[in-house]
From TrEMBL:
Belongs to the short-chain dehydrogenases/reductases (SDR) family. Putative oxidoreductase. The gene is DHRS13. This is Dehydrogenase/reductase SDR family member 13. One of its GO terms (cellular component) is extracellular region. Residues 367-376 have a biased composition (Basic and acidic residues). The lineage of its organism: Eukaryota, Metazoa, Chordata, Craniata, Vertebrata. Residues 327-336 have a biased composition (Low complexity). Pfam families: adh_short. It comes from Bos mutus grunniens (Wild yak). It is found in: Secreted.
Amino acid sequence: MEALLLGVGLLLGAYVLVYYNLVKAPPCRGLASLRGRTAVVTGANSGIGKMTALELARRGARVVLACRSRERGEAAAFDLRQESGNNEVIFMALDLASLASVRAFATAFLSSEPRLDILIHNAGISSCGRTREPFNLLLRVNHIGPFLLTHLLLPRLKTGTSRVVVVSSAAHRRGRLDFTRLDHPVVGWRQELRAYANSKLANVLFARELATQLEGTGVTCYAAHPGPVNSELFLRHVPGWLRPLLRPLAWLVLRAPRGGAQTPLYCALQEGIEPLSGRYFANCHVEEVPPAARDDRAAHRLWEASRKLAGLGPGEDAESDEDSQPEDPGTPSSPSSPHPEEPTVSEFYPSPQSSTDRSTVTRRIPVKAELEPQAC
């Protein structure tokens, strides 16, 4: 009996250590009031996105829930209005898998909303499920859609001091971008795992390059890792027979969605982190990333490839998008709208001879160690 009690005590002690060091998320203690400010949160009908939107609404922001399902989005908006006491929570339709839907959302937002202070790219997928598309669906939803949406909403973001937060993942450390196959279809769970990691690496590089492109505009950008979260994304593609076995385990070792929302909220609200624009955050503090995720040359190459995959023309800028919406390529394989030309390179990253001339790109400000903010 004593041995049994000792074993139980050791297990409980080990769990407490794991919980407080790996599972429990530090709370965000950012800006107290967001009255008069507007935020957009994609995928905000459930999980991390819904908890993020709730905290923004509680602080008085006007919050736009950008969701694919009208039924679930409007139900979430109703819930958040009731729980926060803030009636400025609305739903707008957005399907990141469809470039036409992204453009329609941007057009509607620009025509109805005079400002945008916080843009949080939370929506994402971890698997293609039963869907089989002639393009990389994981990259489309997790990166290309957010890339295009950010570009189209820049006219509002640039009107004041604003922030863009891209929810990434520690999976980016396993990513490796092959620009010769960037938009190739994904088939099978092994390819899905690789494509997911690659899309998360794209998120980190996107935030890095966006910070460079927008330096001096008042817009700052951050990649945020929510941590291991017990959300719908975790169980969405797990076989039905396995879910009852995984749910108790997930409850024990994964964060609740509210905990997962803390780092994205920190990046959106914390004062004093502007010099860290373009960096990657986890557990409410800046974290170093592997060389592939801080490669400025690869980040710029991804930017140019993303412009093509998003259907942006060579001379198309954000300001022109507000007044005229060019034709969306839609589904890349459709006869009426051919697949955007892919970047053609013979190596994973460009050689010095073939790399893009970056003399016209704003130089990144070096970040000193003493600028790192304290964890919240």
